[in-house]
Amino acid sequence: MPLQTVEPKRLYRQIADQLRLLISKGEFAPGARLPAERDLAIQLGVSRPSVREALIAMEVEGWVEIRTGSGVYVLDRSDRAKAPQLAPSEWGPLELIRARRVVEGEIASMAAQQAKRKDTEAMRKAIASMKRDAAREVLPLDGDRAFHTAVVEACGNIVLIETVQTFWDSRRGPLFTRLGGYFETLKSWECAIAEHEAIYAAICAHDGAAARTAMHEHMDKSHKRFSASWRRAKTT
Asked: Quick one: fold of 93-232?
């Protein structure tokens, strides 16, 4: 059964649906290794990040096991209890980062023009919290959320505030959490903290263009970290 090209709407779900169908029809037996991410992307006519999101979704739902440095293997579902299902509204993590780049880039520029001392102080405290957690070898997610919240609150627009909060809450979803389990490390967070400091410095300098650029660079680098080769993912 040939794979079919898909339209760019909830791409990872459409990709996962096709792969699940092939598994259900026996084209990939339990224990078999799926084609490489690159090959799947070519056959489906989509990007490798979209394939990655689909594979992560299938792992969350118990269809496959991702073995870093080896490949993606089909699991035997015959004796399994009903596996968890992702919510239909679950956003793909990499698409989420790209959307955040667009929205939060402009938010950072606005914040540079409108931020008051209380806003920049909240950003400073958030970065300090991230550094403390990293020093304790704890992933600094709380400080990360606090920083991005402080940036958008400086704009004084409730629609933007609630939009960013929705973005960030989606980051805690099962799909993003599983992806982060492969690619988020204390070393990667050290890089992210430095990126936050660049955003903070531009906002404190009231330089809207620099703040936008710094936020774009942060999101681009985040996307790159999550799009790295599976062989470069941390192993457990």
From this structure: Four Helix Bundle (Hemerythrin (Met), subunit A) (1.20.120)
Three-class secondary structure of residue 150 per DSSP: helix
What CATH fold (topology level) applies to the domain 11-74? Arc Repressor Mutant, subunit A (1.10.10)
- The backbone region for 83, taken as left when phi is positive above 0, alpha when psi lies in -120 to 50, beta otherwise, is beta
Q: Compute the distance between CA of residue 32 and CA of residue 83 in angstroms, rounded to an integer.
A: 20
Tens digits of residue pLDDT in 86-128: 777 788 888 899 999 999 999 999 999 999 999 999 999 999 9
User: What confidence tier does 235 reach under pLDDT thresholds 50, 70, 90?
Assistant: very low
Phi, psi of 67 (to 5 degrees): -110, 105
Prediction pTM value: 0.83
Bridge partner residues of 33 (DSSP): 73
